[in-house]
Design goal:
The protein has helices spanning 4-21, 28-35, 39-51, 69-74, 77-85, 88-91, 109-125, 128-134, and strands spanning 56-58, 64-66. It has 144 residues and is mainly α. The chain is elongated. The relative contact order is 0.18. It holds the Pfam family Rrf2.
C-alpha cells in the first residue's frame, strides 16, 4: 500500500521518536541500520522529513536526528504519509488502474473504498507518541 520511501519514512520516524523519548539523538548510520534501509536512501527520506518539520536535526559531534516529545503528541501518521506519498493512498485504485472511479469501477473499487476510509482514520488518529509508548525497546533489533 505504501511506497518503499513511505515504509522507510514511517520506520525512521518511529525509531527516531523512540530514541528521542529515551533522550537520545540518533545518527543517519544508526537509523539506516535500525530500519534496514540503504543509507543514501534513508538520507533522502530524512531530508524530506526534516524539510517538512516531521523530524529535527542538529549537525556536529553532539547532533543527530530527534523529535520533541510535545511534537510527538500531535504528530499523526497521516502527516508522515502525506509528506512521502501524498494523498494517492486515499484516492488511487486498488488495482492501480487510471480509469477506475465510481462511474467506471474496477472489480475491487467499492470494497477498497471502505478499506481506504479505515486506513485514513487509523493514520489520522494514531500519533507518534501512541506508537512510541506502545513499543518494546528491541523492535528494531539493534546490535549492541
Amino acid at each position: 500500500m505504501f511506497s518503499k520511501s513511505c515504509e522507510y519514512g514511517l520506520r525512521a520516524t518511529i525509531f527516531i521518536g523512540q530514541q528521542s523519548h529515551l533522550g537520545t539523538k540518533v545518527s543517519l548510520t544508526t537509523i539506516s541500520e535500525a530500519i534496514d534501509s540503504p543509507q543514501a536512501f534513508t538520507a533522502k527520506i530524512l531530508q524530506q522529513l526534516t524539510k517538512n518539520n516531521i523530524v529535527n536535526s542538529i549537525k556536529g559531534p553532539h547532533g543527530g536526528f530527534f523529535i520533541e516529545t510535545e511534537a510527538m503528541k500531535t504528530l499523526n501518521l497521516s502527516a508522515i504519509v502525506e509528506v512521502l506519498d501524498g494523498d494517492s493512498i486515499y484516492t488511487g485504485c486498488g488495482l492501480g488502474l487510471k480509469q477506475c472511479n465510481d462511474k467506471k469501477p474496477c472489480p475491487l473499487h467499492f470494497k477498497f473504498v471502505a478499506i481506504r476510509e479505515e486506513l485514513k482514520n487509523m493514520l489520522q488518529n494514531t500519533t507518534l507518541l501512541m506508537l512510541v509508548n506502545d513499543m518494546e525497546l528491541d523492535i528494531f533489533h539493534l546490535k549492541t
